[in-house]
Amino acid sequence: MAPPPPQIIRVIDLETTGQAPPTHGVCEIGWQDVVLGSDGRWELQGEGGHRLVNPGRQIPPLTMAVHHIRNEDVADAPYWHDVARPILDPWPRRVALAAHRSDFEEQYCTAALTRGADWICTWKCSMRLWPGSPGFSNQMLRYWRMPDGLEHERGLPAHRAFPDAYVTAHHLRDMLNEVGVEQLIQWSKEPGLLPRVRYGPDRGKEWHEISEESLAGFLTDRDVDVRHTAEQEYFRRTGGGAVTRRVTRQPELF
């Protein structure tokens, strides 16, 4: 009897007409699989791929300037719902889907298209595993880490669906071999834990370096990742004590 096919996590990258549906649509999807081998180690598998997609609307010049996909390139391409399911749902092998800043992909890759798959966000996980990186974009991690086996030309051009998925897959492989699937999924379900302050007078400082007054201001920040990180630092300083009234009023800001 033939052994069952190996489990995979499929890395997804989308190029779109803008930031969020339904105003914007997908114009390209790329993917690369990472497979669990018989030795218990995760590795890239297969050639991956990409498909152009007709977004059903014009591509604005602003986004064409990023990914260089033109309206004439996608005029005869299939629509998103004709393309998405077979790529997003390689059942039963798929353990999860992954993307760098997966919150973006998840807007378009809905539960109906993915059969409710779990997602791994390599951006959130990179900040947990490699906090010393000078930045956490896909390409910054690529050149800071220089992952083994990454073919430089195959990961180009940046901001196209397959090359970006291919680069992300190398980060994911190394994360999986360091901490495993369950931990990555758990981190991905939480807001991002930022190693350093993003903006303001304390920009670039580690969170333990800022004053109590500065920290209090971040506890009600509109950015969920900043707010979450500030809360974790607050808990560290108070030994896990109760959050102040200023934090409990956060929902009133939205």
TrEMBL record:
Top-level taxon in the UniProt lineage: Bacteria
Question: Which PANTHER family does the annotation name?
Answer: DNA POLYMERASE III SUBUNIT EPSILON, PROTEIN NEN2
Q: Which UniProt keywords apply?
A: Exonuclease, Hydrolase, Nuclease
What species does this protein belong to?
A: Sphingomonas xinjiangensis
For the Exonuclease domain, which residue ranges apply?
A: 8-181
Main EC class the enzyme belongs to:
hydrolase
Report the protein name in the record.
Exodeoxyribonuclease X
Per the UniProt record, the lineage of the source organism begins with: Bacteria, Pseudomonadati, Pseudomonadota, Alphaproteobacteria, Sphingomonadales
Q: Name one GO biological process term.
A: DNA metabolic process
Entry-linked Gene3D superfamilies: Ribonuclease H-like superfamily/Ribonuclease H
In short, the EC number is: 3.1.11.-
